[in-house]
Every structure is written in structure tokens, then in C-alpha cells.
Amino acid sequence: MAQTSTKTLTLEEFLKLPETKPASEYINGKVVQKPMPQGKHSQLQGKLVTAINQVVEGQKIALAFPGLRCTLVGAQL
Q1: How does DSSP assign 24-77, residue by residue?
Q2: What is the pLDDT of residues 52-76, one digit of tens each?
Q3: pLDDT at 50
Q4: Going by C-beta distance under 8 Å and a sequence separation of 6 or more, which residues neighbour residue 37?
Q5: CA end-to-end distance (rounded Å), the chain
Q6: Cα–Cα distance for residue pair 35/24, rounded to 1 Å
Q7: Which residues contact 45 (CB under 8 A, 6 or more apart)?
């Protein structure tokens, strides 16, 4: 089950926190630990990646990757 902190954080404060396992997400000022994906999640993820890539790969404008995580340092959000 996902755990949520009770303190509200700014995005800048969240980005300074150390990485956690399982990974944490920032949602509406709260830190929420991501639950482990289940079978339906993986199935939907596979279908979504395939559908996105069918549209964008031929145009060479993007690629969708399942489960790829990245941190953008200094990005303007």
C-alpha cells in the first residue's frame, strides 16, 4: 500500500529528497510511495507503449519506453 507524508512540500523540496525504494512521486504537494505494479498495469503499459510508438516512431518525433525513469536536473517545469 502506498504511504503518504502528512507534510506538504514544494516541488523544490521534493526534488532535494534522496531516492527511495520503492520510488516516490510528488502529487499535489505530497510525497507518495509508488505501489508495485501488478499484471493489469503491465498489460496496459505494453499496449500504451505500442500504440504511442505506432504513431510517433515513423515520424521520428518520439519514442515510448516501458518503465524508463529519468530525473531532469535544472529543467523548467
Answers
A1: EEEETTEEEEPPPP-HHHHHHHHHHHHHHHHHHTTTTS----TT-----TT---
A2: 999 998 889 988 988 777 766 776 6
A3: 95
A4: 45
A5: 29
A6: 9
A7: 37, 66, 67
Q: What are phi and psi of 61, to 5 degrees?
A: -110, -15
* Per-residue pLDDT, 49: 94
Residues 6+ apart with CB under 8 A from 52: 62, 64
Domain ranges of the chain: 1-34, 37-65
From residue 5, alpha-carbon distances to 22, 43, 55 in Å are 14, 30, 39
DSSP 8-class letter at 10: -
Question: Looking at the whole model, is its pTM more than 0.85?
Answer: no
